[in-house]
Amino acid sequence: MISFWLVLSAEVFGSSV
Length: 17
Fold this sequence. Notes:
Structural class: mainly alpha
Strand content: under 5%
Number of strands: 0
């Protein structure tokens, strides 16, 4: 489930920035 982690990381990273 790599895509799941990619999306999750993108969301967290986007919110952090």
